């Protein structure tokens, strides 16, 4: 089933990534970290899908599996009608032009020994798109697009601030005119006042180049601001997906509710109505049976500890995987 | 209003670093105080000097850094003048400091129980056994479940949130009067962050602690501080009671900062709007221009701002601000030219 007509640029189904845990002198595999454990996601053309969740919930691993920077254990990733997991390494390299990534850390993601001009222009060389003055021209153009002076080409990354380095990373990601950009915590390392600049830039570029974003972040306010839809991840699974306004106004999953209630608001007169959660995120090496959230869930019932709830639609594309939201969510998939 | 002398009074503190590229004024003549029982929030962007300020208070600055000027009065005594053994007594027993990275701050080779017990024994003559009993009590106080068992755990067996609870337990072990918490929840997930902030608030009330809470997160500051000092480029640019600073910020930087934070639920139906960002970047500490450090990014900048440095001066009530919009230039006797 390859969905093209429905307007989805990317469709991820049943994605799993298990990392082996090796122990002892013979490095025997003694178990698996289920970093991503059956993720379904669809990205519509031109939209921004926000992906939020606690540290270790599997956001980065999901992104890397989509790009095949990691080989998924199971599942399918269909991009623009092509199943990426069926491509040969050579075909995949070609396909990479269309899928780019921006990383969290603007300090370590740029080669410190390369000039900015080479960093941004490198993809053009690798994919044999432009050389010589033509390349220089395009690099200068890209730097302007991200709000940097073209003279930046001659300088090295350490000569720039965090926000400027993130702009360099964005220019590089844009060089090949991709369709999809996976933004993995692109503003998390930046100061608030600079973070706003980069968020604005990403929104402007999206409009100009009809980009589709998977926007991974743990800051729920930033995600609300930039996303059309938001997916919430918990212990390797998507637990809720909805239009941004709907999710923030009317969260259904108890985890989403708790998460939103815990966000500190910059208003000293706001009354805290925090929903307390018991304990910490369990280890993805030994996820709890049934609903993985049940040991911490304030409203769990008996069935939650036995049966894995399915991610079901409660209307209008608002999906949640919770037995209380969908009392019928324990049945076999249709 | 206060008849009591403040618990801590920082007066014109200046801290410099001599680097290969030149001299950096990490903290550039700041003054503030912390009253008995209050939480002062210190907020500002990365590199503005928050951590260096906290470390200076305990004289923890090491070369190439040095405290170049100022006084740090704790209960009226200048900590910059006391002897080395005396400052060691102050550390932990009078003033405790907890850091952002709880896992890194703990020693991986000792159990958390032993580490807390050691902290207790530095300042109190008690047996190892009694110190361990006290450690269990402290772990219970910071709401670690099953403390009798957990006291034998090593740091790596605990989550980040639990390690931070251990750090808090350790910092309380000698009953300090002032707790300095440097980004205590920045490395933690929001759900855990909220629990730690609640815990700190509870302990503060229970023990009548004073607190210096350092954070770059305006939400954290809004929820926990009584008063707020906003730092920019090594200086305090504004100071006010928490409600006032959020309701009516005065300094252009504070105004811009508050505007640029996206707020939960703050979005209109279906529309994504651009965030009101502050243009430009934080100034390079090596090549600082004369005048107001915010002038290159300020929308209200006037001629005088590029020439003279504004001072942190009182406004109405308990407020202070360092900006020529609010305090016309003194000295030259010129009218404020816009
Ligand atoms: N190469 C690896 N080998 C083993 N385990 C891994 C590997 N990479 C990730 N993991 C584990 O997989 C889980 C998910 O990690 P991932 O980095 O995807 O989380 P995340 O949601 O991006 O978290 P964060 O918000 O901290 O970035 C974690 O428990 C992590 O420890
Ligand atoms: N070891 C050092 N050598 C040189 N300069 C230093 C050193 N440590 C700190 N600085 C300078 O001091 C300034 C203030 O640093 P500080 O750690 O106090 O910032 P901060 O406000 O705590 O930032 P953050 O929010 O990132 O923790 C920095 O901008 C840096 O220039
Ligand atoms: S002093 Fe001038 S430059 Fe500085 S904040 Fe005030 S108006 Fe802006
Ligand atoms: Mg990640
Ligand atoms: Mg700091």
What features would you describe in this structure?
Chain A is globular and about 70 Å long. Chain A starts with 7 loop residues before the first strand and ends in a 14-residue tail after the last strand. Chain A has 334 residues and is of the alpha/beta class. Chain A is built from 9 helices and 12 strands. Chain A has an 8-stranded mixed β-sheet, with helices on both faces. A 4-stranded antiparallel β-sheet of chain A has the order 2-1-4-5. In chain A, 28% of the residues lie in helices and 23% in strands. Chain B is an alpha/beta fold and 338 residues long. Chain B has a domain at 108-171. Chain B has 12 helices and 12 strands. In chain B, strand 11 (313-314) and strand 12 (320-321) form a beta hairpin. The longest helix of chain B has 18 residues, at 190-207. The two termini of chain B are 36 Å apart. Chains A and B meet through helix 5, helix 6, helix 7, helix 8 and helix 9 of A and helix 8, helix 9, helix 10 and helix 11 of B. Residues 59-60 of chain A line the site of one magnesium ion (MG).
Gist of the model:
Chain A is α/β, with parallel strands linked by helices and 334 residues long. In chain A, 28% of the residues lie in helices and 23% in strands. The mean pLDDT of chain A is 90.
């Amino acid at each position: 089933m390859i969905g093209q007509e429905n307007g989805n640029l990317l469709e991820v189904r049943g994605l799993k990534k298990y990392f082996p845990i090796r122990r002892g002198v013979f490095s025997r595999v003694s178990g698996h970290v289920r970093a991503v454990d059956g993720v379904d996601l669809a990205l519509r053309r031109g939209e921004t899908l926000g992906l939020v969740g606690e540290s270790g919930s599997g956001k980065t691993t999901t992104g890397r599996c989509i790009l095949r920077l990691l080989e998924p254990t199971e599942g399918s990733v269909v991009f623009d009608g092509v199943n990426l997991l069926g491509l040969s390494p050579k075909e995949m390299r070609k396909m990479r032009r269309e899928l780019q990534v921006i990383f969290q850390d603007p300090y370590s993601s740029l080669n410190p020994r390369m000039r900015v001009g080479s960093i941004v222009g490198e993809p053009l060389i690798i994919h044999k798109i432009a050389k010589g003055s033509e390349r220089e021209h395009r690099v200068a153009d890209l730097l302007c697009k991200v709000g940097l002076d073209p003279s930046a080409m001659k300088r090295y990354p350490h000569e720039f601030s965090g926000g400027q380095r993130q702009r360099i990373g964005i220019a590089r990601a844009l060089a090949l005119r991709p369709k999809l950009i996976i933004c993995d915590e692109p503003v998390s390392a930046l100061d608030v006042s600079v973070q706003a600049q980069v968020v604005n830039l990403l929104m402007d570029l999206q409009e100009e180049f009809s980009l589709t974003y998977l926007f991974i972040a743990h800051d729920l306010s930033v995600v609300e601001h930039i996303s059309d839809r938001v997916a919430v991840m918990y212990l390797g699974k998507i637990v809720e997906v909805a239009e941004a306004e709907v999710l923030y106004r009317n969260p259904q999953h108890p985890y989403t509710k708790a998460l939103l209630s815990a966000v500190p608001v910059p208003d000293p007169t706001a009354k805290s109505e925090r929903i307390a959660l018991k304990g910490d995120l369990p280890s993805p090496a030994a996820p709890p049976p049934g609903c993985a959230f049940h040991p911490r869930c304030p409203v769990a019932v008996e069935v939650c500890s036995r049966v894995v709830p399915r991610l079901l639609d409660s209307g209008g594309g608002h999906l949640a995987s919770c037995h209380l939201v969908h009392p019928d969510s324990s049945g076999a998939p249709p | 209003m206060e008849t009591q002398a403040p618990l801590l009074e920082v007066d014109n503190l200046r801290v410099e670093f001599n680097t290969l590229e030149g001299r950096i004024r990490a903290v550039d003549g700041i003054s503030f105080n912390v009253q008995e029982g209050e939480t002062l929030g210190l907020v500002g962007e990365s590199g503005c000097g928050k951590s260096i300020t906290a470390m200076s208070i305990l004289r923890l600055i090491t070369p190439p850094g040095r405290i170049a000027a100022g006084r740090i009065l704790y209960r009226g005594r200048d900590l910059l003048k006391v002897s080395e053994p005396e400052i060691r007594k102050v550390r932990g027993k009078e003033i405790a400091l907890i850091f952002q990275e709880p896992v890194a701050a703990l020693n991986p080779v000792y159990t958390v129980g032993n580490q807390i017990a050691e902290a207790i024994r530095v300042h109190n003559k008690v047996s190892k056994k009694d110190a361990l009993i006290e450690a269990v009590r402290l772990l219970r106080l910071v709401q670690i479940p099953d403390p009798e068992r957990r006291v034998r755990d090593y740091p790596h067996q605990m989550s980040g949130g639990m390690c931070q609870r251990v750090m808090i337990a350790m910092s309380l072990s000698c009953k300090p009067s002032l707790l300095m918490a440097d980004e205590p929840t920045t490395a933690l997930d929001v759900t855990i962050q909220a629990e730690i902030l609640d815990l700190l608030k509870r302990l503060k009330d229970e023990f009548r602690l004073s607190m210096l809470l350092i954070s770059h997160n305006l939400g954290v500051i809004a929820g926990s501080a009584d008063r707020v000092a906003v730092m920019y480029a090594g200086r305090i640019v504004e100071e006010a009671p928490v409600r006032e600073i959020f309701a009516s910020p005065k300094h252009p930087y504070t105004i811009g900062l508050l505007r640029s934070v996206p707020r939960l639920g703050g979005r209109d139906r279906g529309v994504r709007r651009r965030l009101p960002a502050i243009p430009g970047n934080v100034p390079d500490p090596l090549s600082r221009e004369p005048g107001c450090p915010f002038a290159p990014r300020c929308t209200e900048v006037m001629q005088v701002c590029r020439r003279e440095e504004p001072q942190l001066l009182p406004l109405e009530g308990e407020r202070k601000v360092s900006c020529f919009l609010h305090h016309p230039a003194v000295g030259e006797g010129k009218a404020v030219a816009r």
